[in-house]
Design brief:
- It is a single chain.
- The protein has one helix and eight strands; from the N terminus they run βββββαβββ.
- A hairpin with a 3-residue loop joins strand 2 and strand 3.
- The chain is globular.
Length: 152
């Protein structure tokens, strides 16, 4: 499983068309501890994830962002996320409109600084989504923060 790292602590799901113009301060206003939303004029909604500088990955089949809180490894993580999908403990945050290709990047990184090893490319079907979060502990030694997109 591939993970991205950040020194800043906040990631942004930036529309691909805006990446060259991203200057690294767009998400400063959110200062979200977990998830947030900003609107880019003429480019739509941007999801922000973070608060702490935790490694992140994206599980496409579950439309879930996973942040590494504490664990020795990520073995069994996909099964744990699948099991968590049925939990009634997900916290609702807000709704967001997404469509098309996005680049998940460290929000403090300018678009001109982005390299392929620093980002994930994510395709999101056009639609309105509810953003939900859940902290899971697949074992006594492991915790992961989940943030998922649920079609509404």
């Amino acid at each position: 499983m591939r993970w991205l790292e950040t020194d800043f602590g906040l990631y942004a799901l930036c529309p691909d068309s805006y990446v060259p113009d991203w200057d690294g301060v767009e998400a400063d206003a959110t200062a979200a501890d977990s998830v947030g939303k900003i609107v880019l004029p003429d480019h739509g909604d941007v999801l922000t994830l973070g608060g702490e500088p935790l490694a992140i990955t994206y599980l496409e089949n579950a439309m879930t962002f996973v942040r590494w809180v504490a664990a020795d490894d990520d073995q069994g993580l996909e099964a744990a996320v699948e099991a968590a999908a049925r939990s009634a403990d997900w916290q609702d945050h807000f709704e967001i409109t997404l469509e098309g290709g996005y680049t998940l990047l460290d929000s403090a990184m300018g678009g001109s600084e982005v390299s392929e090893s620093d980002v994930f490319h994510i395709d999101v079907p056009k639609g309105r989504y509810r953003v939900q979060s859940l902290l899971i502990a697949p074992s006594d030694e492991a915790e992961f923060q989940l943030d998922r997109l649920v079609s509404v």
